[in-house]
Every structure is written in structure tokens, then in C-alpha cells.
Amino acid sequence: MEVIDKVSEILHLLAPIESRQWWRTTDISRELDIHVSTVHRLLSSLKRHGFVAQDPVNKKYSLGLEFLHYAEAVKEFHIVENMLAQPLEAIYKKTSESCFITIREGTWGRIIDKMDSDKPLRAVEEIGTKRSLHIGAANKAILSFLPLKTKNELLKSLKDKESLERELNQIRKKGYAIDENETILGVMVVAIPFFTEKGNVIASLSVAVPKIRMNAETLGVIIKHLIEISEKYKG
């Protein structure tokens, strides 16, 4: 923990301000009262991972560009949360079933928000749950609308790629995805993608219903509500 504390102190110090943007190892050591050899070792490790940058001429240090990647990821996460908070509540009020927001994390889909049904028999998933992007309606609703190059890269290692590609094409045509017993036994899930203003898929909104309460009419109503809500809350 002591190492993490020291790294945290160094990174806070290196955060650029108008009066100072670059620091020598000795200056960091003096400012934070950390032995210079320890500072040098930690900076070398941080530099290797892209978290700090070193000027090749004067050898001073500043924050590295790797932080931009994490900043964008955090920014996107909160944008998605804020953007889909109202649609999540809207579909929950329409269906009274368990509803979820899922985002893509690399080759995974992760649940980042939910509203649980208050019915005794209901679908239950935890926030943070993740599955491979080719498993389940919530994930496939995202996978179907990814750029072709990205999608092909994600699918190339799968054995039954052709069958999945046909399913993904159908999802693109219909605009929504359905799974039955694929993620939760005895539950049917219906999901629809959400897009940014530029048309990039960023998340899915899904409704999970115990099969005992699902029939063709109920399914049609849920799909109708999802489509209406996605149109109302376009990015």
C-alpha cells in the first residue's frame, strides 16, 4: 500500500499546472520527501507503462498520454449512464420487469445499471456482471452494430462464426435482439442498441422476463416499447 501511496503522490504532483508542467527526479524527491532512488524506480515503471512521459532532452517528467485512454473510458461510462438513465426508468415503468444497461468493454459486455422488478418471480443480474460479447441479447444488440472490421476481429476466434453472423445480421435488420435461456435459465431477454449522435453503438437497453410470463403478445408489446423509447431518447 505504501508504494501505491507514493505513486499517487507522484502522479498528483505531475498533473500539469500553468506554473509548472515538467519535473526533475531530484525536484520530485525533495518536494515529496521520498528518497531519490525510490522516485527514479517508480518513474521508470510508470514511464514503461505510459503513465508518465520524459523529455528526451532535459530528462524531466510529466504525465503520460496513457491517462487520456482512461479519461475517455471514464467519460464515456458516465455519458452512457446519464444518457440511458431516463430510458432505463421509462422501460421499467412500461414493463415492471427487470431492466438493464449494458456497455462494451473490449470483448465483453458489462451491466452498468439496472432496475429490478418488484415481482416475486423476477430475473436477477448484478451490476458489474460481464459476459463475452457474443453471448446474450444485451451483448449481441451491441455486437451487431459494431463496425465490420471490429466485429470481424471479435468473431474470428469463434468456432460457429457463420451461424452467429447470420443471427447478428438478423438483429441488424430487426433492430433488436432476443435470447431465451441463454444468459439466465427460464428467462427471455429482449434488447435494443443505443447510439451516439454520430451513429456509433455505445450500449444496449434490455428487459428480462421469466418465460412463465412471456407470450407472443407480451413480447410484441415489450419490443414496441423499447423501439419507441430508443426513438424518443436518441443520442
TrEMBL record:
The answer to keyword Transcription applying to this record is: yes
Q: Does the keyword Transcription apply?
A: yes
Q: Which domain of life is it from?
A: Bacteria
Cross-referenced InterPro entries, in alphabetical order?
GAF-like_dom_sf, HTH_MetabolicPath_Reg, Tscrpt_reg_IclR_C, Tscrpt_reg_IclR_N, WH-like_DNA-bd_sf, WH_DNA-bd_sf
UniProt keywords (A-Z) are: DNA-binding, Transcription, Transcription regulation
Domain HTH iclR-type residues, every copy:
1-65
Gene Ontology molecular-function annotations: DNA binding; DNA-binding transcription factor activity
- Segments forming domain IclR-ED: 66-235
Question: Could you mention a single GO BP entry for this protein?
Answer: negative regulation of DNA-templated transcription
| Entry-linked SUPFAM superfamilies | GAF domain-like, Winged helix' DNA-binding domain
Q: Which PANTHER family match?
A: HELIX-TURN-HELIX TRANSCRIPTIONAL REGULATOR, ICLR FAMILY, HTH-TYPE TRANSCRIPTIONAL REGULATOR RV1719
- Please state what the protein is called: IclR family transcriptional regulator
Q: Source species, please? A: Irregularibacter muris
What lineage is on file? Answer: Bacteria, Bacillati, Bacillota, Clostridia, Eubacteriales
